[in-house]
Amino acid sequence: MCAKDCSEPDNQSEAFFAALVARHSSDGVIISDPDRKALWVNAAFTAQTGYVLDDICGKEPGSVLQGPETDPDAARMISLACAQRREVRLDVLNYTRDGKPFWGDLKVTPVYDANGLHTHFISTMRDISERKALEQQNEEMRHAEALRQSERQLLALTSEWLYSAKSFDELLMVVRRAMHTLIPEADGALYIYGAQRSTLELVASWGTIPEFPDHILPDDCWALRRGRAYAFGLKPIQFPCDHVHHKDTPYFCLPIIAHGETIGLMHIVFDGFEEGGLMRHMRAEVLNNRWDISLICAEQISLAVANVRLRHELHERSVRDALTGLWNRRWFTERAAREMVTAEREGAPLSLIAVDVDHFKQFNDRFGHDAGDLVLREVAALMQDLGQNGVYPCRLGGEEFTLLCVGLPVAGAVDLAEELRSRVAALELVSNGASLEDVRISCGVAAYPQDGNNLDHLMKRADTALYAAKEGGRNRTIAAADLSAG
Q1: Looking at residue 1, what is its pLDDT?
Q2: CATH topology for the 135-317 domain
Q3: Is 14-127's fold the same as 135-317's?
Q4: In the predicted model, what is the mean pLDDT of residues 464-469?
Q5: Confidence of residue 401 (pLDDT cuts 50, 70, 90)
């Protein structure tokens, strides 16, 4: 049981206890006069800052402790609160006597005597540098995670757009925009192998001032020679590619692979990231991050290219005749309907040339189906030679062909049909050692709108003219307008 009543200590006891607190507290304590001039500091303050009383006596504590990175707003808040003689508490960055920064949880309290006269300020300061370091670390982690989340969202969005591209041109448009957004500090280029695979051709570039050669040789790139992505500027042992002009600039070379075959190269250049361009640790951190993103992008672009190619192949199969390579009936019907709408809106000419191989059955009967297929392919090849400037050759089935002639009036279509007829008549074909003589065609020409104001009617008029050519002795061209005149 306590032998002394502790509820009302005497003045001597209070002074003794206060001295104990001031001496042994782990918080730094400064006692200042009403003008904020330091009068006394405790041992904890000296341990925290390295300053003894002689260093700070008669000076405003902030003028000694604050430094170049101290928040000016924090200093102003302290001054304002002291001027208004009110308590203030905040975190402030201070500096020790040897110049080392540390964070302090500072509390400044005005002290009044029994008559209400302001006599002192008491400042207590606790070192919270470790807490601030953890907060900074957590903030950096949150910021890094936010960046990663943003990158993941951009990559997901890029992937969605890449896989939605219906054509190679659309794909290139997405690549340009996506790569410039994902890696804004870099210039880039996409190369695709040419038909002979002897060179890679520049098909897209992006960035501020991209300077890339129009063609590069496969042996000029370490990535293509080694068969894997190559990063110049990240390893202690490295050699620049021959297609790179600025040998000290960091860059990435990433092969583009579709269906297991290398079809191209993505080249990403970090101009301004040379050894003297960025602090070394920042340069390495940025490049490593961009390397990871680039690898993902190269993979996505590779998959997207494969997807576009497959989609193109499937589309081609659906609209191309397998034997001749000409457009098929499905393509013809859809395209002709659209072109007739355009012709009506713009008042432009449009013609159809119906083509049929004369006595085609005899080639199959006398020489076999291989001979018949040869005849169809050779006639189709001649039609493809003429299929330019709005002329689209199509095979509707069997030995029946048609030429959709956009922008060509009936007189021009007749001339085209006659040229095709004469070229077919000049063919000299041999199948399995047998000469295929007398390959001939008949043609019927109909024009929009005079011979028909819709596709069905126009096709019927072209067929009627074709039948008239056959009945008239074959190997000739007749226009539907001539039948009407007759």
Answers
A1: 42
A2: Beta-Lactamase (3.30.450)
A3: yes
A4: 95
A5: very high
CA angle 198, 325, 339 (to 5 degrees): 110
Give me the CATH code for the 14-127 domain, please: 3.30.450.20
**Spans of all domains in the chain:** 14-127, 135-317, 329-485
**Span 108-131, average pLDDT:** 92
Instruction: Name the residue with tokens 């061209």.
Output: 477
Residue 377 has pLDDT above 90, yes or no: yes
Q: Does the domain spanning 329-485 belong to CATH 3.30.70.270?
A: yes
